[in-house]
Amino acid sequence: MKFFRWQRGLRLVVAAAFCLAGSIASAQSNPAYMTFGVAKGLLYKPDNGPAPHVGVLVMHRTADFLRHPACTELSKRGFMVLCMNSRYENNEVAVSFETLPLDVKAGVQALRGQPGITKVLLFGHSGGGPLMSLYQAIAETGPSYCQGPQKLVQCSSDQLVNLPPADGIIFADAHPGNAILVLRALNPSVANEDNPPATAPLAGLDPYNPRNGFNPNGPSHYSDTFRKAYFAAQSARMNKLIDSALDKVRRMKEGTYPYPDNDVMVIPRGGPQGSGPGASAYLWITDPTVPEILQTTKPRKLVRNDGTIDDSGIVKSVAVADPGNGKRNMAFDTGTKLLSVRSFLSANAIRSRDSLLDIDYCSSNNSTVCAVQSISAPTLFTAMGAYYFIGDNERMYQLSKSRDKEFYVIEGATHFFTPCATCEPRKGAYSNSLRNLFDTIANWINQRF
Is the alpha carbon torsion for 139, 143, 146, 152 positive or negative? Predict the structure, then answer.
């Protein structure tokens, strides 16, 4: 399976999905451009049929979502859709995650102000998941959700008080949190944080060393002993990065740091910008057998390619190994994170003892896993069957506070909802993945709202 760097990959694959829609794209030919201070959006309305009474807000932390597939797929199915770009569009270095609920608030208010709209739902795809869930958790419980000694960064009580809650939330292959993905993306064999790394990788933790189970020509297989050491070492590296960043912020406040406000933060072998997998040191990219990530723990609802639902067994990802990932992780352009100290702490850092499951999920405000535990609104979880978030979405589903919640896996779908051609047992086996996802979402909405 070929992987792309997050920002470039999203544009390419979203554009492909948009073109696949054919008549869909022409049907919504005149979305209305809207501005929300430092954010912007396109408002999509169905051209035919009854006037919609349900509005859906689509947004991501940094990615361009103005022409996300949900914009046309959901409006085609009779819903009003506002697709927005946040104030930090394509600018990971500047992200202050705790300010982004203000952009979501503007979108919710804009939809509620549209004639005929009685219900507003949030749509969280990928990094939109932690954003939308943060908003809804604060809206339901107040700013205290994103404050306290456990949090690496505190939110503002004054700015985030009285957020209007949405009526429901939809997660479309939402990830567990950018901070969690960055934790799991770190290559723990880096001996120091010099840029470039001044010493050779720690051999016993190098995921691209054949002695540790790496196969440069096909699927790798790492032993349980290596995996345990690897996940613990990822946590150790992240915790050291956090301690260093917090110490710099402390010295900035004291006036003893060279800069009074912020500083650049370079993380070699830390994965690409954003949260995409392209050059991340996820073990499951090279070894697609890690059960905690790649499969459910119980029988779950699998939406088959023909649209039927199979709930008879454990659901496993059909993603295939990508042995070329090692070279990308070692390169600067594809394997180095460029952040600021403050953007790291706000959206890319989380405490843990083991990167797989022993994570302090609520130490970061960028954590879908934490937020769903404070959300009571009806919630839909969907995971793509040819990607890496099946285990995490099941975990979020299990922890969700909502009494009205459902979880589906879409057979053969990539993270961008399109069919995984390289995963197919036969040509066309997953050809309906995009349609099946949005049919599932539309059915869920229509049954409740």
Answer: positive
pLDDT tens digits, one per residue of 319-364: 999 888 888 888 888 889 999 999 999 999 999 999 999 999 999 9
Global pTM reads 0.92
Start-to-end C-alpha separation, the chain:
38
The tokens of 227 are what? 């995996």
CA distances from 180 to 184, 344, 369 (A): 6, 12, 9
pLDDT tens sequence across 173-218? 999 999 999 999 999 999 888 888 877 789 999 999 999 999 999 9
